[in-house]
Design brief:
alpha+beta; about 25% helix; Immunoglobulin-like
Amino acid sequence: MVSWRTLIAALAASCVAALGAASATATANAAASATAKAGQQTYVFKVTIRNLGRADLTSPVYAVHNRSFRLFQLGKKASPGIANLAEDGATSGALAEARGKRGVGQANIGPRIAARRSASFRITTTSKHLPLSWAAMQICTNDVMAAQSNAKLPASKVGARRIVRIRALDAGSEQNTESRAHVPCLGAHNVGPNENGVIKRSKGVQGRGDVVNANQSWGKFLARVTLKRIS
């Protein structure tokens, strides 16, 4: 025979479990309700970056955000994090400048992109954070980036796609010596002379130093990006 103490304990455990499940359901419903009231839809995108150059692109730092955030701006001075990324491929500073900042839905690091190859990553975001910005260094330069600012993700329907060709940008933070004493792919790291300029279109490899144009440069475009909504 089951004792009355055992029955009471069992009933108490059942009540606790029921209350826990009800609480979890209420929390989930409240979150779903809040999202619905905010008019936010969740999307998943696949971002594929094709490296069109003859040297690797470093791992890109990327962020999805609203219109108030800027990872970088053409014609403006590069932030310390973007300058370090463009000069040495270092991602931690640029990531810290984006992650958790007002207007940013999420920020992360994508895979390194070998010369003449493609690499992809996925982003889950909401209708509140649809612009995408990213930047990656071309490793055989002083401070050249493949980058996009405020690229519009194609959210209209599943399968929607946009393809964008990317011109190279010069971060304006390091002089373009093209010397093995200053270029990462030739063994140097974050040691080049400061330029103190602004972000601008790159003029490409000039062949004035140790970087060989035929082996380490690119054509009119440095990268091609495919943005595709997958769910």
